[in-house]
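Worked problem 6 (solution included).
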Amino acid sequence: MLRLLAVLALLSTWVSGAHSSPNDSVKVLPDSSNFVTASLLVATPTNNAYSIFGHVALRMECPTHHLDNVFTFEHDGSVDPFHTGILGKAKAVCAVVPFQEYLQHFKEEGRGIKQYEFDLTLEEERSLWRLLDEDMLSGNKRQFSLLHDNCLSTSLFKLQVSLEGEYLDWGNVRYPMDLCYGDLTRVCMKDSPWMEFVVMTFCGTAYDRLPGQDFMFVPEFIPQMLKDARFVNTETGSKRAVLKGQPKQIAVAKVLPKPNKITPTWVFGGLLLVTILLTLGEWLWKWKKLPRAFDIVLFALQTLMGLLLLYVVAFSELFGGLWNWYLVVFLPIPFLIWLFFRKQKRYLRAWGLYSVLLIIFLLVTPFVGVLDMPHQFITATLLVRSMSKCLI
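Solution. The predicted structure is:
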């Protein structure tokens, strides 16, 4: 995404264009249908965390007055991806950028852009432009959220508010928009397994929620949805297409997302294998120091992860207040066992009960959508070391 400071610095260019003399070479059609053009710009994704889903913006053109601007809902680029995507604490504003500047930025990143023109009436196009101007000039900062207030949902909201005597009918919900948030996220992050792993770790029961089309966050699927959608007259019920003509390829993608070959499945599967080998060494060859050092590192990281999960559940603007199944694995139970029972006879029993809890958690994997193989490799790793402590 564009950085907000750069976007706001271009505002003076937009203002000067608004007061330029009319372009006499542009002939306005009798029905004024070409006086203003409103389009949706859809940019391709990259492997970077901030652009993993792609980006959308609204392009507003008035050739008669030399105006060609892009209105884009941008979050604060200085905020790290964790605070933006997990804690949901990044702010965002509606910014305006001259089209050529916007295009140049995405070309430099090697990203492709397609333009989809809306079939709006002149009054609706003027209304949309006015709404975007008012939002941009207000400078209102809103909470940026992948699930609710993002570049796509904001653009769709502005489009629907601008309609005069009409409403947007999405038609039948089609794959993948009939999926829950979690399954949809997995489809969209198929080329970014580590980002998928992070989101699945923190999303909790938000995984099972169903996204409404008005709040969808995936630019990749919006073109087909808009092709199927219709503007419906509130009085007569007559329908017309949302998009006009064929999409235009504004920029060709030169950088495409590439899956990371070193996936969480491989990493945590490898960790489980090492743990099993280490435990066999402890049982068969009486290793002591190496397993003890491994346990200290393993359960220290598990405790830190548990505290981080608790923080997200308590304070995240995006996932806060929602139950997270991975708390079962990452709650600092091993630390509490060591702290309170290490010198008591109940020490081994405590590890046994913890092992039973982990076994049950592994068994429910097929019945809980958010549970997956990489995370359960971690669960199995903790189980192996917990059972070892209980039995030895």
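Discussion: The longest helix spans residues 289-315.
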